[in-house]
Amino acid sequence: MTNEKNGKTVRVRVNDRGPFVAGRVIDLSRAAADEIGSVADGVVPVSVSVISLPAVPERVAAKEPTAGWAVQAGAFGSEENARRLRDRLAERYPTPYLEEFQGLRRVKFGPYRTRTEAETAKESLAELSLAGIVVPYR
């Protein structure tokens, strides 16, 4: 990753699917942000280059979603914050729900029959100043 303002680079490992703020590309740890000189600025323009991708186990790669698609609109360590977003989404989207994953509460809604329908719903999150990702419905 390269800070476009100063040309400094850092190699990072992406370990989640955030950020969930419209217009943002990636959230960095404080150490990585310090490495590229972005701590004081907070948000800076960056370039991201993929160096390698993890291997996907064959059993996961071959698995087709059977129940359709969902949109993940956020992930929180705080259950209160997750519930707050779930309740906010309930006014506009079908069946928002919480899903526990590695100590986080993911906020999702769906299901959608096709990925295209889920992508359309995901794009509409920008109207709420949110960003999301499309995931298989579980």
Structure report:
The protein is α+β, with helices and mostly antiparallel strands. The chain is 23% helix and 22% strand. The protein has a 4-stranded antiparallel beta sheet with strand order 4-5-3-6, covered by helices on one side. Strand 4 and strand 5 form a beta hairpin. It is elongated, with a radius of gyration of 17 Å. It starts with a strand and ends with a strand.
CATH class identity of the largest domain: Alpha Beta
Cα Rg:
17 Å
Estimate what percentage of residues fall within beta strands: 15-25%
Q: Estimate nothing, just give the exact number of structural domains.
A: 2
Structural class: alpha+beta
Strand numbers in spatial order across the main sheet: 4-5-3-6
The CATH topology of the largest domain is: Alpha-Beta Plaits
N-to-C CA distance: 33 Å
Number of strands: 6
Q: What's the order of the H and E elements?
A: EHEHEHEEHE
User: In DSSP terms, counting alpha (H) and pi (I) runs of 4 or more, how many helices?
Assistant: 4
| CATH architectural name of the largest domain | 2-Layer Sandwich
Largest sheet: 4 strands, antiparallel
Query: Which residues form runs of ≥5 with pLDDT under 50?
Result: 58-65
What average pLDDT do the residues reach?
85
Cα shape:
elongated
What is the CATH superfamily label of the largest domain?
Answer: Sporulation related repeat
Helix content percent band: 10-25%
